[in-house]
Amino acid sequence: MVLTNATKLHTMSVMLTLKDHRQTKIRNALLSIFATYQEPVSVAQILDFLKKENLSPNKTTIYRELEFLLDHEVVHEVRFGDRTVRYETTSLAHHHHLICIKCHKIEDISLLIDLKGEEARIETLKKFKVLHHSLEFFGVCQKCLR
Ligand SMILES: [Zn+2]
Ligand SMILES: [Zn+2]
Ligand SMILES: [Zn+2]
After folding, report:
1. CA angle 101, 104, 106 (to 5 degrees)
2. Which domains does the chain have, with CATH numbers?
3. How far is the CA of 96 from the centre of ligand 2 (A)?
4. 72 touches 27 (CB < 8 A)
5. What's residue 127's pLDDT?
6. Rounded to whole angstroms, how far apart are CA atoms 136 and 109?
7. CA torsion sign, 31 to 35 to 40 to 42?
């Protein structure tokens, strides 16, 4: 939960990009959530965070705002195969996730190899234009192993 300078800068640039759009209380609250919690968050978690800020928008508003932030590439979707869509800031460098199946803790991980080579190979082999990829690792975290 550290607010790095990079994230602060990103948030500022996001504000600039979005400045021609109507600013809403909810949108600003969402931006600060994504700047503060740099891990993927679900709509349920977002609603909890907002409740603590004494904001209680309905789900439709949240989804509309998230759609807006997705369109402006401020956030991207992360899926862990559990039907829950999570949203994460696009300010972080490309990375993957470690998901603990016991406590559901999510940790970021960068790979030593990047998969650009694989993407290129797939494009040649399958004549398939790769737009992006997602690769998550499921297992048991250090705390739950004890
Ligand atoms: Zn765990
Ligand atoms: Zn992440
Ligand atoms: Zn990757």
Report:
1. 110
2. 5-89 (1.10.10.10), 96-145 (3.30.1490.190)
3. 6
4. no
5. 97
6. 9
7. negative
Tell me: the pLDDT tens digits for 87-137?
999 888 899 999 999 999 999 999 998 899 999 999 999 999 999 898 999
What H or E segment, with its residue span, contains residue 79? strand 75-79
Q: What CA–CA distance (Å, rounded) separates 22 from 8? A: 21
Q: How far apart are CA 42 and CA 60, in angstroms?
A: 14
In the structure, ligand 3 is a single-atom ion and the residues with CB under 5 Å from it are 115
Residue spans of beta strands (DSSP E) within 4-125: 41-42, 75-79, 85-89, 96-100, 106-109
Residue 1 confidence (pLDDT) above 50: no
Whole-number Å distance, alpha carbon 97 to ligand 1 midpoint, is 13
Tell me which of 13 and 109 has the higher pLDDT.
Answer: 109
Q: How far is CA 124 from CA 117, 121, 129, in A?
A: 11, 5, 9
